[in-house]
Specification:
Layout: H1 2-31, H2 34-53, H3 58-64, H4 70-102, H5 106-120, H6 125-133, H7 137-160, H8 166-186, H9 201-231, H10 234-271, H11 276-300, H12 302-310, H13 317-330, H14 337-343, H15 347-366, H16 373-378, H17 380-399, H18 403-414, H19 416-430, H20 440-461, H21 466-484
Helix pairs in contact: 1-7, 1-10, 2-4, 2-5, 2-9, 2-10, 3-4, 3-6, 4-5, 4-9, 5-8, 7-8, 9-10, 9-15, 10-11, 10-13, 11-13, 11-18, 11-19, 12-13, 12-20, 13-17, 14-15, 15-17, 19-20
Length: 485
């Protein structure tokens, strides 16, 4: 019951945050040019690895440690402070070299603004981790949608004011300032303490392994912008960013929502002696049942989505988005593998898995020296295969979870993909001649409705476990409606 309640709180806040983010992206995409968006994307990619070091694994450390007292919290705060302030100086120092490397002064301007984030982070990140550990999701939910609102307003206002690529940087800084103020309002006085150099060994040991794995993963996340920005240019980076952003925009909030509850819950069950294999596969049955059909539908309707949201100048991103969403669909059975391995204490296993996946991606991206953007994205299928093989092997080693056992458990969720996809396929094929007109919104509405109806039919026909959740929610709604009457 508590898991459902917590998911409900964070789900509502995530929906509001998603709507605000979507509004900001739509508005800004119509104000700024692809090159301006590309400049900001490259700058954020440069900061990607720095963000991993900002708390040195402190957030996960505070969640998974058995007990957190004043001593442990002070040690965590100290590590966050030292690492974040050091990074602030490094980012500020390298802003000009990166600007010269990419041949645009805007890189230095953006990095100057965003370097201030690292000075502010230590006064909020440990408190945020503590609230996650204590499951204070009512405060976390409020903080999420309010900080997103601040970021959206500041970004849009700055864009209209002619701040160009700097508008998104100002929005990010404003959101962080508000978040820190809000957290300290809710937990007054807890973060204001003198840092220490004593007793940091446990935090540093845990953080070194988790941060190294996170660095590798973050580098892989930012690698497309970093490498393509150099080999293909800012315009191609912008098209890739919009295509990849479509996947992130729709799914990031769902993943973040489940992630916030999944990690502490999975860790707790393992400490109680639970079967890691069963816990993981049964969790994935629900996640695949929602995410895989969603990715499939997004791949089908990527063109009308992009044209409706961003305009015809971004039409080239549509086929790229289709490929990205298709590949994402195949890896949904392995969502949260890294959190599961960390919860089990398999930090080194998680490290080699991330190294293998990101190494394969970097090799594919280097091919952009010779290939076009579209051909490089096609090769991402190789990265998907590497990820499936490596993660499955790691889960087998850690939890004795073989592929056949895992596949059998999630099979009902896979069956939901054709149920959800049939309607959108018919709509898109029928509407092929009018995609580039003003009917994109109508196409999206019709395809979305048919996808939801098809998904619901699939859930009830296959007797998927989600059926019980839907019936439970329906029963609550009926009882409340009857009581209101």
């Amino acid at each position: 019951m508590s898991i459902r309640r917590n998911l409900g709180k964070m789900g509502g806040a995530s929906f509001v945050a998603f709507a605000l983010n979507l509004s900001a992206v739509v508005i800004v995409s119509r104000i700024l040019t692809p090159e301006e968006v590309g400049i900001y994307s490259v700058s954020v990619a440069v900061l990607g690895m720095a963000h991993i070091f900002r708390d040195f694994g402190v957030a996960q450390y505070l969640v998974q440690i058995k007990e957190v007292g004043t001593k442990e919290f002070r040690e965590a705060f100290s590590v966050t402070l030292y690492s974040s302030w050091l990074l602030a100086g490094i980012v500020f120092a390298v802003r000009e070299p990166f600007s010269i490397f990419y041949g645009h002064p805007g890189i230095a301007e953006i990095l100057t603004i965003l370097s201030a984030n690292f000075l502010i982070m230590p006064f909020g990140t440990p408190l945020l981790a503590l609230m996650n550990r204590e499951l204070q999701f009512h405060f976390l939910a409020t903080n999420l949608w309010l900080s997103t609102l601040v970021q959206t307003v500041v970004t849009v206002v700055c864009a209209y004011a002619g701040q160009s690529y700097l508008s998104m940087a100002w929005g990010a800084l404003a959101a962080l300032v508000f978040k820190v103020l809000w957290l300290n309002y809710v937990r007054p006085g807890e973060i204001f303490m003198w840092p220490t150099f004593k007793g940091l060994g446990n935090v540093l040991k845990f953080g070194s392994l988790t941060s190294l794995a996170s660095i590798i993963k973050e580098f892989g996340t930012g690698a497309p912008d970093l490498i393509l920005g150099r080999t293909l240019g800012f315009v191609d980076v912008a098209f890739f960013s919009r295509a990849n952003g479509l996947k992130k925009m729709i799914t990031a909030r769902v993943v973040a929502l489940i992630r916030s509850v999944y990690f502490p819950t999975f860790s707790s069950e393992l400490r109680k002696g639970g079967d890691g294999a069963a816990l993981y596969s049964h969790s994935m049955k629900y996640i695949v049942g929602v995410m895989a059909p969603l990715f499939a539908v997004m791949a089908i309707v990527s063109e009308p989505i992009i044209l409706f949201l961003f305009g015809e100048q971004w039409g080239r991103a549509a086929p790229i988005a289709t490929l990205i969403c298709t590949y994402a669909m195949f890896v949904t059975p392995y969502t949260f593998y890294n959190l599961s391995l960390i919860a089990a204490g398999e930090l080194k296993t998680n490290l080699w898995v991330e190294s293998s996946i990101q190494g394969a991606q970097i090799l594919v991206l280097i091919c952009s020296i010779w290939l076009s953007l579209e051909h490089v994205v096609m090769l991402f299928g190789v990265v998907t295969l590497v990820q499936v093989v490596c993660v499955q092997h790691a889960l087998n080693l850690t939890f004795n979870l073989g592929f056949i056992r895992h596949f059998k458990i999630i099979l009902p969720s896979i069956f939901l993909i054709p149920f959800s996809s049939l309607g959108p396929i018919v709509i898109v094929l029928y509407s092929e001649e009018i995609i580039y007109s003003n009917n994109s919104f109508i196409i999206l509405v019709m395809a979305g409705l048919l996808a939801v109806v098809g998904w619901l039919i699939g859930v009830f026909v296959t007797h998927h476990p989600i059926k019980r959740e839907i019936e439970g929610v329906s029963a609550i709604v009926r009882r409340r409606f009857i009581n209101d009457k």
